[in-house]
Design goal:
Blueprint: E1 2-6, H1 13-19, E2 30-33, H2 38-50, E3 55-59, H3 70-82, E4 89-94, H4 97-105, H5 113-129, E5 133-136, H6 141-151, E6 157-160, H7 166-175, E7 178-181, H8 189-197, E8 203-205, H9 227-238, H10 242-256
Parallel strand pairs: 1-2, 2-3, 3-4, 4-5, 5-6, 6-7, 7-8
Helix pairs in contact: 9-10
Length: 266
Protein backbone atom coordinates (compact mmCIF):
# COMPACT_ATOMS: atom_id res chain seq x y z
CA UNK A 1 0.00 0.00 0.00
CA UNK A 2 0.89 3.69 -0.15
CA UNK A 3 0.50 6.06 2.81
CA UNK A 4 -0.99 9.05 0.99
CA UNK A 5 -0.09 11.65 3.63
CA UNK A 6 2.55 11.60 6.36
CA UNK A 7 4.88 14.16 7.97
CA UNK A 8 8.10 12.16 7.96
CA UNK A 9 10.23 15.18 8.82
CA UNK A 10 8.45 15.40 12.19
CA UNK A 11 9.70 11.98 13.25
CA UNK A 12 13.02 11.74 15.08
CA UNK A 13 15.92 10.47 12.99
CA UNK A 14 16.15 7.35 15.15
CA UNK A 15 12.47 6.63 14.53
CA UNK A 16 12.91 6.94 10.78
CA UNK A 17 15.91 4.61 10.76
CA UNK A 18 13.85 2.05 12.65
CA UNK A 19 10.60 2.53 10.71
CA UNK A 20 11.42 3.04 7.04
CA UNK A 21 13.64 0.00 6.28
CA UNK A 22 10.99 -2.31 7.70
CA UNK A 23 8.08 -1.02 5.61
CA UNK A 24 8.43 -3.46 2.66
CA UNK A 25 8.01 -6.33 5.10
CA UNK A 26 4.77 -4.74 6.26
CA UNK A 27 3.47 -4.41 2.71
CA UNK A 28 4.00 -0.65 2.54
CA UNK A 29 5.58 0.32 -0.77
CA UNK A 30 5.89 4.08 -0.39
CA UNK A 31 4.80 7.21 1.42
CA UNK A 32 3.78 10.67 0.25
CA UNK A 33 5.74 12.90 2.64
CA UNK A 34 4.31 16.41 2.94
CA UNK A 35 6.07 19.52 4.21
CA UNK A 36 5.25 22.50 6.45
CA UNK A 37 7.61 25.33 5.39
CA UNK A 38 10.99 25.83 3.75
CA UNK A 39 13.04 24.16 6.52
CA UNK A 40 10.57 21.28 6.51
CA UNK A 41 10.80 20.99 2.71
CA UNK A 42 14.58 20.77 2.92
CA UNK A 43 14.43 17.98 5.50
CA UNK A 44 11.73 16.12 3.55
CA UNK A 45 13.90 16.24 0.44
CA UNK A 46 16.87 14.94 2.42
CA UNK A 47 14.83 12.02 3.76
CA UNK A 48 13.63 11.22 0.24
CA UNK A 49 17.25 11.18 -0.93
CA UNK A 50 18.10 8.68 1.82
CA UNK A 51 15.18 6.43 0.83
CA UNK A 52 14.82 6.79 -2.94
CA UNK A 53 11.74 5.21 -4.42
CA UNK A 54 10.17 4.80 -1.00
CA UNK A 55 9.63 8.42 0.08
CA UNK A 56 7.73 10.66 -2.34
CA UNK A 57 8.08 14.30 -1.24
CA UNK A 58 5.55 17.11 -1.47
CA UNK A 59 6.55 20.71 -0.79
CA UNK A 60 4.48 23.61 0.53
CA UNK A 61 3.50 25.89 3.41
CA UNK A 62 1.07 24.46 5.98
CA UNK A 63 -1.58 27.02 6.98
CA UNK A 64 -1.82 26.20 10.70
CA UNK A 65 1.18 28.36 11.64
CA UNK A 66 2.16 32.01 11.65
CA UNK A 67 2.21 33.58 8.22
CA UNK A 68 5.63 33.91 6.59
CA UNK A 69 6.99 37.34 5.62
CA UNK A 70 6.63 38.06 1.93
CA UNK A 71 10.34 37.46 1.38
CA UNK A 72 10.12 34.04 3.04
CA UNK A 73 7.14 33.06 0.91
CA UNK A 74 8.99 34.13 -2.23
CA UNK A 75 12.02 32.10 -1.15
CA UNK A 76 9.83 29.05 -0.56
CA UNK A 77 8.10 29.34 -3.94
CA UNK A 78 11.45 29.77 -5.66
CA UNK A 79 12.89 26.73 -3.86
CA UNK A 80 9.87 24.61 -4.83
CA UNK A 81 10.22 25.70 -8.46
CA UNK A 82 13.88 24.69 -8.47
CA UNK A 83 13.10 21.28 -6.93
CA UNK A 84 9.89 20.57 -8.84
CA UNK A 85 11.30 17.44 -10.50
CA UNK A 86 11.86 15.86 -7.09
CA UNK A 87 8.30 16.30 -5.82
CA UNK A 88 5.03 14.53 -6.53
CA UNK A 89 2.80 17.40 -5.36
CA UNK A 90 2.57 20.85 -3.82
CA UNK A 91 1.58 20.35 -0.22
CA UNK A 92 0.58 20.53 2.48
CA UNK A 93 -1.21 23.78 1.72
CA UNK A 94 -4.60 25.17 2.63
CA UNK A 95 -6.48 27.35 5.08
CA UNK A 96 -6.16 27.72 8.88
CA UNK A 97 -9.50 26.45 10.18
CA UNK A 98 -8.21 25.33 13.58
CA UNK A 99 -6.03 28.38 14.23
CA UNK A 100 -8.95 30.63 13.34
CA UNK A 101 -11.37 28.70 15.57
CA UNK A 102 -8.95 28.90 18.51
CA UNK A 103 -8.41 32.63 18.04
CA UNK A 104 -12.13 33.33 17.83
CA UNK A 105 -12.75 31.20 20.93
CA UNK A 106 -10.30 33.47 22.78
CA UNK A 107 -12.20 36.51 21.56
CA UNK A 108 -9.42 37.55 19.18
CA UNK A 109 -9.85 38.79 15.63
CA UNK A 110 -8.49 36.64 12.84
CA UNK A 111 -7.79 37.93 9.35
CA UNK A 112 -8.22 35.28 6.66
CA UNK A 113 -7.24 37.30 3.60
CA UNK A 114 -3.45 36.91 4.08
CA UNK A 115 -3.83 33.13 4.32
CA UNK A 116 -5.96 33.11 1.19
CA UNK A 117 -3.22 35.03 -0.62
CA UNK A 118 -0.60 32.49 0.47
CA UNK A 119 -2.77 29.60 -0.70
CA UNK A 120 -3.54 31.39 -3.96
CA UNK A 121 0.17 31.87 -4.66
CA UNK A 122 0.90 28.19 -4.05
CA UNK A 123 -1.98 27.06 -6.22
CA UNK A 124 -0.75 29.34 -9.00
CA UNK A 125 2.64 27.66 -8.71
CA UNK A 126 1.09 24.17 -8.78
CA UNK A 127 -0.87 25.09 -11.90
CA UNK A 128 2.27 26.41 -13.58
CA UNK A 129 4.24 23.28 -12.67
CA UNK A 130 1.30 20.97 -13.53
CA UNK A 131 1.48 19.30 -10.12
CA UNK A 132 -1.37 17.98 -7.94
CA UNK A 133 -2.03 19.67 -4.61
CA UNK A 134 -2.43 18.30 -1.08
CA UNK A 135 -4.94 20.37 0.86
CA UNK A 136 -5.62 21.08 4.51
CA UNK A 137 -9.10 22.56 4.02
CA UNK A 138 -11.84 21.37 6.34
CA UNK A 139 -15.38 22.43 7.20
CA UNK A 140 -16.36 25.70 5.54
CA UNK A 141 -12.78 26.32 4.41
CA UNK A 142 -13.26 23.55 1.85
CA UNK A 143 -15.64 25.79 -0.10
CA UNK A 144 -13.09 28.60 -0.30
CA UNK A 145 -10.47 26.07 -1.40
CA UNK A 146 -12.78 24.81 -4.13
CA UNK A 147 -13.21 28.39 -5.39
CA UNK A 148 -9.45 28.81 -5.66
CA UNK A 149 -8.93 25.42 -7.31
CA UNK A 150 -11.44 26.37 -9.97
CA UNK A 151 -9.82 29.78 -10.40
CA UNK A 152 -6.52 28.11 -11.26
CA UNK A 153 -8.00 25.24 -13.26
CA UNK A 154 -6.58 22.60 -10.90
CA UNK A 155 -8.40 19.28 -11.09
CA UNK A 156 -5.94 17.03 -9.22
CA UNK A 157 -6.72 18.01 -5.63
CA UNK A 158 -6.31 15.80 -2.55
CA UNK A 159 -8.24 16.97 0.52
CA UNK A 160 -6.50 15.03 3.25
CA UNK A 161 -8.38 13.97 6.44
CA UNK A 162 -11.41 15.78 5.05
CA UNK A 163 -14.51 16.71 7.00
CA UNK A 164 -16.96 19.33 5.84
CA UNK A 165 -20.50 20.45 5.02
CA UNK A 166 -22.80 18.77 2.53
CA UNK A 167 -22.33 21.56 0.02
CA UNK A 168 -18.59 20.96 -0.02
CA UNK A 169 -18.93 17.18 -0.29
CA UNK A 170 -21.26 17.46 -3.28
CA UNK A 171 -19.05 19.99 -5.01
CA UNK A 172 -15.88 17.97 -4.43
CA UNK A 173 -17.47 14.81 -5.79
CA UNK A 174 -18.69 16.68 -8.86
CA UNK A 175 -15.18 18.02 -9.50
CA UNK A 176 -13.54 14.63 -8.99
CA UNK A 177 -11.41 15.75 -6.05
CA UNK A 178 -9.83 13.02 -3.93
CA UNK A 179 -10.03 12.60 -0.15
CA UNK A 180 -8.15 10.33 2.22
CA UNK A 181 -9.12 8.61 5.44
CA UNK A 182 -6.95 8.21 8.53
CA UNK A 183 -7.13 5.52 11.25
CA UNK A 184 -10.00 7.45 12.84
CA UNK A 185 -12.29 5.80 10.27
CA UNK A 186 -12.14 2.81 12.61
CA UNK A 187 -13.96 4.63 15.44
CA UNK A 188 -15.47 7.95 14.24
CA UNK A 189 -19.12 7.67 13.08
CA UNK A 190 -18.98 11.00 11.21
CA UNK A 191 -15.99 9.80 9.19
CA UNK A 192 -17.61 6.43 8.57
CA UNK A 193 -20.69 8.15 7.14
CA UNK A 194 -18.54 10.16 4.75
CA UNK A 195 -16.70 6.98 3.75
CA UNK A 196 -19.97 5.26 2.84
CA UNK A 197 -20.94 7.94 0.35
CA UNK A 198 -17.72 9.24 -1.22
CA UNK A 199 -17.02 7.53 -4.58
CA UNK A 200 -14.60 4.62 -4.09
CA UNK A 201 -12.47 5.72 -7.04
CA UNK A 202 -11.67 9.03 -5.30
CA UNK A 203 -10.48 7.67 -1.96
CA UNK A 204 -7.01 7.08 -0.48
CA UNK A 205 -5.58 5.97 2.88
CA UNK A 206 -3.26 8.04 5.07
CA UNK A 207 -1.89 8.19 8.59
CA UNK A 208 -0.99 11.91 8.92
CA UNK A 209 1.75 10.59 11.19
CA UNK A 210 3.09 11.30 13.68
CA UNK A 211 -0.34 12.65 14.68
CA UNK A 212 -1.70 10.26 17.37
CA UNK A 213 -5.05 8.46 17.23
CA UNK A 214 -7.59 7.24 19.74
CA UNK A 215 -9.77 4.14 19.95
CA UNK A 216 -7.74 0.96 19.41
CA UNK A 217 -4.69 3.08 18.50
CA UNK A 218 -4.58 5.02 21.77
CA UNK A 219 -1.07 5.20 23.20
CA UNK A 220 0.54 3.77 20.06
CA UNK A 221 2.99 5.73 17.89
CA UNK A 222 1.46 6.40 14.51
CA UNK A 223 3.02 4.07 11.94
CA UNK A 224 2.42 3.81 8.17
CA UNK A 225 1.28 0.19 8.60
CA UNK A 226 -1.91 1.60 10.17
CA UNK A 227 -3.19 2.22 6.64
CA UNK A 228 -3.98 -1.50 6.54
CA UNK A 229 -6.48 -0.81 9.34
CA UNK A 230 -7.85 2.12 7.33
CA UNK A 231 -8.31 -0.09 4.28
CA UNK A 232 -10.04 -2.85 6.25
CA UNK A 233 -12.46 -0.39 7.87
CA UNK A 234 -13.18 1.38 4.59
CA UNK A 235 -13.67 -1.93 2.80
CA UNK A 236 -16.13 -3.13 5.43
CA UNK A 237 -18.20 0.04 4.97
CA UNK A 238 -18.18 -0.39 1.19
CA UNK A 239 -18.69 -4.15 1.09
CA UNK A 240 -15.17 -5.09 -0.04
CA UNK A 241 -12.74 -7.56 1.46
CA UNK A 242 -9.64 -6.13 3.11
CA UNK A 243 -7.53 -7.31 0.18
CA UNK A 244 -9.88 -5.71 -2.36
CA UNK A 245 -9.92 -2.46 -0.38
CA UNK A 246 -6.13 -2.34 -0.17
CA UNK A 247 -5.80 -2.91 -3.91
CA UNK A 248 -8.35 -0.20 -4.73
CA UNK A 249 -6.92 2.44 -2.40
CA UNK A 250 -3.40 1.72 -3.60
CA UNK A 251 -4.46 2.01 -7.25
CA UNK A 252 -6.24 5.30 -6.53
CA UNK A 253 -3.18 6.75 -4.81
CA UNK A 254 -0.76 5.56 -7.47
CA UNK A 255 -2.95 7.02 -10.21
CA UNK A 256 -3.43 10.36 -8.47
CA UNK A 257 0.28 10.85 -7.68
CA UNK A 258 1.40 9.17 -10.92
CA UNK A 259 3.35 6.46 -9.14
CA UNK A 260 4.11 3.00 -10.45
CA UNK A 261 2.53 0.00 -8.73
CA UNK A 262 4.42 -2.84 -10.41
CA UNK A 263 7.35 -3.96 -8.24
CA UNK A 264 9.06 -1.11 -6.45
CA UNK A 265 7.27 2.18 -6.86
CA UNK A 266 9.39 4.46 -8.97
Amino acid sequence: MIDAHIHLEQYAEAELKKMLPGLPGQDIKSLVAVSMNLDSCIRTLAIAAQYPGQVKPAFGFHPEQALPPESALEALLDWISRHAEAMVAVGEIGLPYYSRAEALARGQAFEMEPYIRVLDAQLALAARLDKPVVLHAVHEDALAACDLLEKHGITRAHFHWFKGPEEAVVRMIERGYHISFTPDIVYEPEIQELARRYPPGLVMAETDGPWPFEGPFAGRPTHPAMIHDVAAAWGALQGYSAAQAEAMLTANTARFYQLQTGGAIG
